[in-house]
Amino acid sequence: MNEKPSISNLAAIDAAHHIHPFSDMAELNARGTRIIERAEGLFITDSTGKKYLDAFAGLWCVNVGYGRKSIAEAAYRQMQELPYYNAFFGTTTPPATLLAQKVASHAGPNLNRVFFTNSGSEATDTWFRMARVYWKALGKPQKTQVIARKNGYHGSTVAGASLGGMKLMHEQGNLPIDGIHHINQPYWYAEGEHLSPAEFGLKIARELETKIDELGEDRVAAFVAEPIQGAGGVIIPPDTYWPEIARICKARNILLVVDEVICGFGRLGEWFGHQHYGVEPDLAPIAKGLSSGYLPIGGVLVSDRVAEVMMNEVGEFYHGFTYSGHPVAAAAALENIRIIEEEGLVERVRDDIGPYFAAAWKSLESHEVVGEAQSVGLMGGLQLAADKATRRRYEKPDDIGTLVRNHCLENGLILRATGDRMLASPALTISRSEVDQVIETLSKALDHLR
Ligand code: PLP
User: Fold this and answer.
1) Which atom of ligand 1 lies at the shortest distance from residue 226's CA?
2) Which of 56, 260, 288, 295 is the best mutation target for the ligand 1 pocket, counting ligand atoms within 8 Å of the beta carbon and taking the most?
3) With contact defined as beta carbons under 8 Å apart, do 85 and 255 qualify?
4) Is residue 287 lining ligand 1, measured as CB closer than 6 Å?
5) How many Å lie between the centroid of ligand 1 and the Cα of residue 207?
6) Ligand 1: which atom is nearest the Cα of residue 296?
7) Which residue windows are coiled coil (predicted)?
8) Which residues pair with 45 in a beta bridge?
9) pLDDT one digit per residue (tens) for the chain, 450 residues
């Protein structure tokens, strides 16, 4: 074993050699990076020994909480038996096959097959190609255009960043690539003006129809959206939104792609977000909660409609990753899902801790700087407001969110800030007293905005 370097050495090594994702490196190196060393349950510990309640499940992913020895053991056993073999050229491994069956058993009735990837971004690239291949095989090669949403997030690969609607990402690398279009998001608080949430939900959903007309129905392959935008700020759509989106996709014969990377595996109190909203996707990328982040793995749930064309008309799909269906990652994911089933975590979110969290989160609306505090299951978004009565927002939303986040961090709570929205997404195992701790610490941090 190599000798472990001291903390200050590790920070210096990090500054010299490690480029972090989504980080301003100059700022990071000036401040010094936070080094996380261990975790258990909902708590992570940094290299100074400070403990934090992680109300963000890492990056929306550690659904079963930290420290699950049985997942480590399942991975260890698999690594000894068969550390690697691939799913290319007509082979498979037992964990990959069993995982596909297990995932399909929990998804909507028409989603019976899975294509594995290593991440959500690769899952995005996979369905993006598959959608175009599908239409070409049906004799409609001109159906290539894909409609997505402003402020959506679908990953960091070229297709992922293009499909996402993040301006700052588009500005780096000349994105989006051709053939991708963005419509408005269902963000009632900021953009609903005088409409009721229900009216606004319908209006924004119907922008999809307008965009299809503009592009020509025979040129549009698919529409993609997250059930609830995550990275965009936990934007919970009005109830009228999803049924109208599903109606339009069906009426206009375009594939509905529901990005389940965050909302899948119990986050919304159902196995998948599409079940919460009662819609049936044609394709659904997954990742994160699939393995609770213990090992990298993602995939695309493929409906019978698409799978039949891929199998009967396309033949070979020239697409795949060396580690698609990696047996060790698949074994870890299988054990993760076994835990979710055995502990009834999806039902717990729906019937017990989800409603408890919702009431506690909503109580923050009594704070004078909170415009709205909404949640579904264990996914919460809180809107900071300069003036509640008029829904006026702060002039420098990023500074405001960062301030609140930093106060939380100082007091041992990890939440995320996106502009002037505070986001929570804890492990599905969070206890009532841990929920209380989140609310108390956040409430005190909000006092600094008074
Ligand atoms: N889709 C959604 C909705 C996401 O939130 C993310 C990541 O946060 C991705 C796709 C990309 O997943 P990954 O970071 O595993 O590539």
Assistant:
1) 3
2) 288
3) no
4) yes
5) 25
6) 15
7) none
8) 38, 51
9) 567 778 778 988 999 999 999 999 888 888 888 999 999 999 999 999 999 999 999 999 999 999 999 999 999 999 999 999 999 999 999 999 999 999 999 998 999 999 999 999 999 999 999 999 999 999 999 999 999 999 999 999 999 999 999 999 999 999 999 999 999 999 999 999 999 999 999 999 999 999 999 999 999 999 999 999 999 999 999 999 999 999 999 999 999 999 999 999 999 999 999 999 999 999 999 999 999 999 999 999 999 999 999 999 999 999 999 999 999 999 999 999 999 999 999 999 999 999 999 999 999 999 999 999 999 999 999 999 999 999 999 999 999 999 999 999 999 999 999 999 999 999 999 999 999 999 999 999 999 998
In 3D space, the residue among 241, 287, 445, 267 whose CA is nearest the CA of residue 350 turns out to be 267
| 116 CA from centroid of ligand 1 (Å) | 15
151 phi/psi in degrees, rounded to 5: 65, 15
User: Backbone phi, then psi, for 434, in 5-degree steps?
Assistant: -70, -35
Regarding the beta carbon of 291 and ligand 1, being less than 6 Å apart is answered no
**121 CA closest ligand 1 atom index:** 16
Tell me the CATH number for domain 71-342: 3.40.640.10
Ligand 1 centre from 77 Cα, in Å? 28
Q: Which atom of ligand 1 sits closest to the CA of residue 59?
A: 8
CATH 3.90.1150.10 holds for 34-64+346-447: yes
Identify the residue whose C-alpha is closest to ligand 1 atom 13: 120
- What does the domain layout of the chain look like in residue ranges? 34-64+346-447, 71-342
β-sheet bridge partners, residue 238:
none
166 CA → ligand 1 middle, Å: 13
Q: What is the ipTM of this complex?
A: 0.99
* Tokens representing residue 375 in the block: 């949640």
Write out the two tokens for 76.
């260890």
